[in-house]
Specification:
mainly alpha; Amino acid/polyamine transporter I; 416 residues
Amino acid sequence: MKKKTTKLSIFRRLWLFLAVLGPGLITASADNDAPGIATYSRVGSYYGYKFLWIILLITVGEVIIQEMAARLGAVTGKGTADLIREKFGVKITFFAMISLLIANLGTTIAQFAGIASGGELLGISRFILVPLVALLIGFFVLRGTYKNVEKFLLIMSLSSLSYIVTVFMLKPDFGEILRNAITPTFEADTNYILAVLATVGTTITPWGFFYMQSSVVDKGVEIDDYPLTKADVIFGATWGNLVSAFIIISTGATLFISGIRVESSEEAALVLAPLAGEWAGLLFTAGLMGASILAAIVLPLSTVYAISEAFGWERGLDQRKDDAPFFYWLYIGIIVFSALFVLIPGLPLFRIMWLSQTVNAIFLPVLLILALKLVNDIDLMGQYRNKRAQNYFTIGLTIFITLVAAALFVMTMNSG
């Protein structure tokens, strides 16, 4: 009888976890977007497995930071921009929203660039695919509820499995991979430091923090249900960064060893086919397409959630269109602008991807300082404030990103 009860309890817990699964996994999966895949492909081809220790460090950082965002949402029932406006005033809120809009718009453009590139690798013209995907995304979000959109995003998250399958097809030296994952290395080189910034900027993102908190609020998670949401955050961050590591491994095991350097994810997919077989190239392309579509939905949502909150406008996927017109019109505007931008011939799309990640990394320390103030506010959080270890790690990560950005600035000035 006791065994039966235990089994029922295990199944009940699993069911509850699957029911609450969403914000954490979606946010982490959307991090492995077109710019992310481009960044990981580049560092894998240039540096082999040397960036794996950074991914391991970032995983811990992402768990801590995204958990802070989820906890803020569950305790206060408000989004990040809402709280920034209430606690720090209009000027800081305006600066945060402008920074977020610039970074997110560049990153959303990069998602449609990823969709265009993936389609062309499969022989589909960007002039057909990009408008079609933009139309479907707009229609789906306008017609959907939070639950339906979340279910679709969770299904799209499965596209990242293609990178794990690719690595096992390649059969790399896992002993060497493990050694690089636990052995920190650093190079005093401008390109290396820029790659570090881009890697951090594509994994721990300001938009991810805003989206996590807003989606927890939109989902209606309350503090009594929070332990399951926390499990979702930990699982999502771990899974997302495992996929990031596998992208680096797949390019490191093929391109780096062969002395081939690539600047984008589509270049990586093209080169993988002759090196590792046609299936490896197709799987890599499938992952790029799936991740780009997922992030093309999530990035604009993160933006419109934050800006609507900042100005006190109605927002949320469960709101009627007439009750939250700005929320929906801004979302459609970002989708349309990004899709049309990608169709302009001759644009340096990879450069836009790379710079959007760098802007994310530079804005991130500002957001982390504001978030630390919010999550340690006794009037706001009460007994759910940060633990000392969480504060120490977040402060350390903020200092690390700031120092790397400063080093890059100094080295760029000296080289000029």
